[in-house]
Design goal:
The chain is mainly α and 185 residues long. The chain is built from 8 helices and no strands.
Length: 185
């Protein structure tokens, strides 16, 4: 005795009898699928996700087919199923928390927590500023300690704004290279 073996899914589908419990559902899907797919595409960014969303909503509609009394309101029912399904998917994807063995601790900035460290940093900075030449020291103090603008600093010292910019730039370069402040960096 020989048995027939189907070589493809389409052959198997053609050989199997179609047993759909609700033929009216199949005709509804055939007639309204393009419109409902457009609605699903407006809810998602990806066309493949829209097709999956529509399929899920139609599966929910199929399960509730007997309970739907007014078949003229099917589009509204399916659209509500689309929106509710998409909202559920969105809520599930929103979780961005991951469990870990060790909690990350923020790195502390030197001198930010301990008042003694803060004072030591302030003193070291002031000593470094005092080692600058008098003209650069005056411009740094006016610019950063007194919080004057470049134009205001230039007016106070009777120099041009360009002179203030270049002198402050050189002074900041010297402060960056200061060995006493190198520990803080």
């Amino acid at each position: 005795m020989t048995t027939l073996v189907c070589t493809s899914a389409s052959d198997a589908a053609a050989a199997a009898p179609q047993t759909l419990a609700y033929p009216s559902f199949a005709s509804y899907v055939r007639a309204r699928q393009p419109v409902l797919l457009r609605t699903a595409r407006s809810l998602t960014a990806n066309p493949s996700d829209a097709e999956d969303l529509l399929q899920t909503a139609l599966a929910k509609t199929y399960v509730a087919w007997e309970r739907i009394e007014d078949h003229r309101a099917l589009d509204g029912y399916v659209r509500r199923a689309l929106v509710n399904t998409r909202t559920s998917q969105w809520r599930k994807r929103k979780v961005d928390e991951f469990a870990c063995d060790e909690l990350p601790e923020p790195e502390s900035v030197p001198g930010s927590d301990d008042p003694a460290e803060r004072q030591a940093l302030h003193d070291a900075m002031w000593r470094a500023v005092m080692r600058l030449p008098a003209r650069q020291r005056a411009m740094v103090v006016l610019r950063y300690y007194e919080d004057l603008s470049e134009a205001q600093t230039a007016a106070v010292l009777g120099v041009s704004v360009g002179t203030v910019k270049s002198a402050v730039s050189r002074a900041l370069g010297k402060l960056r290279e200061d060995p006493e402040l190198g520990v803080v960096r």
